[in-house]
Specification:
With 351 residues, the chain is α/β, with parallel strands linked by helices. Helices cover 34% and strands 20% of the residues. The protein has an eight-stranded mixed β-sheet with strand order 3-4-2-1-5-6-10-15, with helices on both faces. Strands 8-7-9-18 form a four-stranded mixed β-sheet, with no helix packed on it. Strands 11-14 form a two-stranded parallel sheet. The two termini are 33 Å apart. The mean pLDDT is 93.
Length: 351
């Protein structure tokens, strides 16, 4: 297949390009070179594939990039929780306007296959069960509760502490920050495109992706790179809340393999039309403190410090049920947590 990868020079996008090229696909890269993702500037090529500088918000650029393309792997996005509300216009513009322009140009070009980089942030809090009331939807954690060190979501009916579980793809979406809202809007726009054109799309909801090539410590970086940057400077990783927040950390090469599997499934026919959704995670529950401690051990650095600080918009627990992608695409993650973290400890990051 000839595949356009938007954001193909970024952290995840470049790993996807490597996986597609290694599998023998003809790859084209379009990347806007956003400074948050490319601190030292945009590379000239990835895996031997030239990088075309261009923004998916520009229909002329997108139309040119789509010529002769069989499928699109849409990785381009502004990522991270952001700094404050001043970031909202940029998130909406990069993620939603960019996706809308891409989808419109896909329709004009008659390209009917798309894989979209989604995110677990669309779930908000994960799936919970109250010991007394059964399955419940956890309400947003109040600032008053966080300020008092009450980090666990409480049952909206009886106030009891909830028990977290794995989140399947059919869980109710409940985005709780601006970035999350834009990621859900990308999915919804994609569904509109699929319905109106008869196209086929696969949404891959990434959980916490880590690995070589992560951007260094910026307000938009993942927590793994923030912890590593601190340890490189001889400082203890600062772990917010009580460190017990459960996440699913998935290695970037496993995420790239999921994209390859999704694209090849579309090439084999896939569903006749419509939008499928898959969680992409390791299937293992780890805490933020687990990650900080594993990195500290791998770098022989100071032990993490649990600060009790918090950020509004963060969630308590969200971990993936990966049954669907294992069954539907035959994808299985290959990189164990300990091995991946040990690799990250000394890997090259984007600087």
């Amino acid at each position: 297949m000839k595949i356009l990868v938007t954001g193909g020079a970024g952290f995840i996008g470049s790993a996807v390009v490597h996986a597609l090229a290694a599998a023998g696909h003809d790859v084209r890269i379009l990347d806007a070179g956003l400074p948050q993702a490319h601190l030292a500037g945009l590379p000239e090529s990835v895996a031997g594939v030239p990088v075309e500088l261009g923004d998916v918000r520009d229909p002329v650029v997108v139309a040119r990039a789509l010529r002769g393309v069989d499928a699109v792997c849409h990785q381009a996005a502004k990522v991270g929780l952001g700094v404050d509300l001043d970031d909202l216009p940029a998130y909406a513009s990069c993620n939603d306007v960019g996706t809308a322009v891409l989808l419109a140009e896909l329709a004009r070009a008659g390209v009917g296959r798309l894989v979209l980089a989604g995110s677990m942030v669309v779930y908000g809090e994960g799936r919970y069960r109250c010991p007394a009331d059964g399955p419940v939807t956890a309400p947003p954690r109040s600032e008053a509760a966080l300020r008092q060190g009450r980090f666990e979501p409480a049952c909206p009916r009886c106030g009891a502490e909830l028990v977290p579980g794995l989140v399947p793809e059919d869980a109710v979406t409940d985005p709780r920050n601006g970035y999350a809202v834009t990621k859900l809007a990308q999915e919804q726009l994609t569904r509109v495109w699929a319905r109106e054109t008869g196209g086929t799309a696969t949404v891959l909801r990434y959980h916490n992706v880590y690995g070589p090539g992560m951007p260094r410590d910026t307000p938009y970086a993942g927590v793994a790179s923030i912890f590593r940057s601190a340890l490189e400077q001889g400082r203890a990783p600062q772990v917010f809340e009580d460190g017990g927040q459960r996440r699913d950390f998935v290695h970037v090469t496993d995420v790239a393999a999921a994209n390859l599997a999704a694209l090849e499934a579309l090439d084999d026919g896939g569903p006749p039309s419509g939008t499928g959704v898959y969680n992409v995670g390791s299937g293992e529950q780890r805490t933020i403190l687990d990650l900080a401690a594993a990195l500290a051990q791998a770098l022989d650095g100071p032990a993490p410090v649990v600060t009790g600080e918090y950020r509004l918009g963060d969630v308590g627990h969200v971990t993936a049920d990966t049954t669907s992608i294992r069954r539907g695409l035959g994808w299985v993650p290959a990189v164990p947590f300990r091995d991946g973290v040990a690799e990250l400890a000394t890997a090259t990051l984007r600087s």
